[in-house]
Automatic annotation (TrEMBL):
InterPro entries named in the record: Bactericidal_perm-incr_a/b_dom (IPR017943), BPI/LBP (IPR030675), BPI/LBP_pln (IPR045897), Lipid-bd_serum_glycop_C (IPR001124), Lipid-bd_serum_glycop_N (IPR017942)
Protein name per UniProt: Lipid-binding serum glycoprotein C-terminal domain-containing protein
Organism: Vigna angularis var. angularis
GO cellular component assignments: extracellular space
Domain of life: Eukaryota
Family according to the record: Belongs to the BPI/LBP/Plunc superfamily. BPI/LBP (TC 1.C.40) family.
Lipid-binding serum glycoprotein C-terminal domain: residues covered: 277-475
Signal peptide: 1-23
Keyword terms: Glycoprotein, Signal
Gene name as annotated: Vigan.05G212400
Pfam families: LBP_BPI_CETP, LBP_BPI_CETP_C
Keyword Phosphoprotein: no
Molecular function per GO: lipid binding
Length: 492
């Protein structure tokens, strides 16, 4: 009904989704609201709309008429209040002309108070009375057409057309006399209908203004931590097809100190399908691999991809005494000294979305350091190339990943303690990777990053699809209040 309803549902979908359609330059998170999503939005918005206009009080109505044998009757209707709304049918459609919402065949019940005074030459002192009445409207129709456009990275909402039409009306008087009832029907039916139509139309305009302000207030950047922000400014205009709404956002990570979006990411002439593997889902969020690459670049540039290891789980090999047979020169120079491993990435991880998963190639330098008194002495550096696969999943309203080691290779970069036997070092590197490096990276990936969605809504029954260079999240959306009510009923 009122527009605040349609967009209380559409906004969360719009903000988090984005479109398939035309490849939008620099739009690296994209998606689409399907007809199923629009249908869900419609049902929820009608429920919310009814709640928003219940107890709506219409302006007082005053009229007068000449009643035969009675005289001039002045009647005032006050406290005209909508008490109940029932919707028989409704529809929401999208297209080049905008989003069209129509409610038809609605039944509206109202309550009101009446009072009258009559004066004539027959009754010089006048008479008066008062009471209540109920009104039932059938066949009411409400319609509105709205449009969305991009304005400097924010969504701008415009009301193109709107209206409310009241059908048949019946009035039931509590008290009064027959001539008063007839007077209400003859003289006030049009006034009551106009008051209803104008009251609901005014609500439509108010709702659109509030929603436009809400869209304008949406942040263009989401702070993820002390290092990075996610650029969620809208890119291009929304595209409205016959059964979907498509929008794109920038979607790249940036360092907090940066003003401009990192350069070098291009995706021209790429398209993202709206299909979800034949499954009917409300929305599809598609994420380009450049989103992950931008995250990798930001954290690498910020020096966040470094780790110092001074002990290995279940092993006591970080002492030169344990290396006396593997690297005799090390033990000879630094007998019985503790050691540590300085692990750092030599370049940002290379990330690629395949048709099965997300692959990552990670280049790591592991520098062996001896701790002599208070001095840290680098003695050798080993370069490790790691190939991993990353399984992506949705946890809550965020996207997280978990790396699995596929293979790795090592070579000696430099050494101050003579030649190292890399075959003997290989098992140590394997232990470091499996017990330290990958668990550390998975701990970071477990934090994930949030997909943009309005508070109060959540993902449900999400699935992941891979289609180079995009990874897609196909999911239903639910209002959290529905979840809480369902949990309460199931536990009762």
């Amino acid at each position: 009904m009122a527009p605040s309803i349609i967009f209380s549902v559409l906004c969360p979908l719009l903000v988090l989704t984005c479109g398939y359609v035309q490849p939008l330059e620099e739009g690296f998170i994209s998606g689409v609201i399907s007809d199923k999503g629009l249908e869900y939005a419609k049902e929820l918005l009608i429920e919310k709309g009814i709640a928003s206009i219940l107890m709506l009080q219409l302006p007082e109505i005053e009229n007068s008429a000449q009643v035969p044998l009675v005289g001039n009757a002045k009647v005032v209707l006050s406290n005209i209040t909508i008490t109940d709304v029932q919707v028989n049918s409704s529809s929401v459609k999208t297209g080049e002309n905008g989003i069209v919402l129509v409610v038809s065949g609605a039944i509206v019940n109202l309550s009101m108070r009446w009072r009258y005074t009559v004066s004539s030459w027959l009754i010089p002192i006048g008479i008066s009375d008062k009471g209540t009445a109920s009104v039932k409207v059938t066949g009411m129709q409400v319609g509105l057409t709205i449009n969305l456009r991009n304005e400097e990275g924010s969504l701008k909402l415009s009301l193109l057309d709107y209206g409310c039409y009241v059908g048949d009306m019946s009035i039931k008087l509590d008290g009064g006399v027959s001539w008063l009832y007839q007077l209400l029907v003859d003289a006030f039916e049009g006034n009551i209908a106009s008051a209803i139509e104008e009251g609901i139309s005014e609500k439509i305009k108010e709702g659109i203004v509030k929603l436009d302000n809400f869209l304008e207030s949406l942040p263009k950047n989401i702070s993820l931590d002390k290092t990075a922000t996610l650029n969620v400014s809208f890119v291009g205009n929304p595209v409205l097809s016959s059964s979907s709404i498509a929008i794109a956002i920038n979607g790249l990570f940036t360092e907090k100190k940066e003003v401009l979006v990192p350069q070098g990411y291009h995706q021209k002439e790429l398209k993202v399908s709206a299909a979800c593997g034949g499954l009917p889902k409300m929305i599809k969020v598609s994420i380009h691999e450049n989103v992950f690459k931008s995250a990798s670049q930001v954290y690498f540039n910020a020096g966040k991809m470094q780790l110092i290891v001074d002990q290995l789980p279940g092993q006591a090999i970080l002492n030169t005494a344990e290396w006396r047979f593997i690297v005799p020169e090390l033990y000879k120079r630094y007998p019985n000294d503790d050691m540590q491993l300085n692990i750092s990435m030599s370049s940002p991880p290379v990330i690629q979305v395949t048709y099965q998963d997300v692959g990552a190639t990670i280049l790591v330098d592991i520098t062996i350091e001896v701790l002599e008194d208070v001095e840290v002495i680098p003695v050798a550096s080993i370069s490790v190339e790691i190939s991993t696969s990353c399984a992506v999943e949705i946890v809550g309203n965020g996207i997280v990943g978990r790396l699995t080691l596929q293979e790795f290779s090592t070579y000696l970069k430099w050494s101050k303690i003579g030649k190292l036997h890399m075959r003997l070092i290989q098992s140590l590197m394997s232990s470091v990777l499996r017990t330290v490096v990958l668990p550390y990276l998975n701990f970071k990936l477990k934090r994930g990053f949030p997909l943009p969605i309005i508070d109060g809504y959540g993902f449900q029954n999400a699935i992941i699809l891979y289609n180079h260079p995009w990874i897609a999240v196909c999911t239903d959306v639910f209002f959290l209040e529905d979840y809480y009510l369902g949990q309460q009923s199931s536990s009762a």
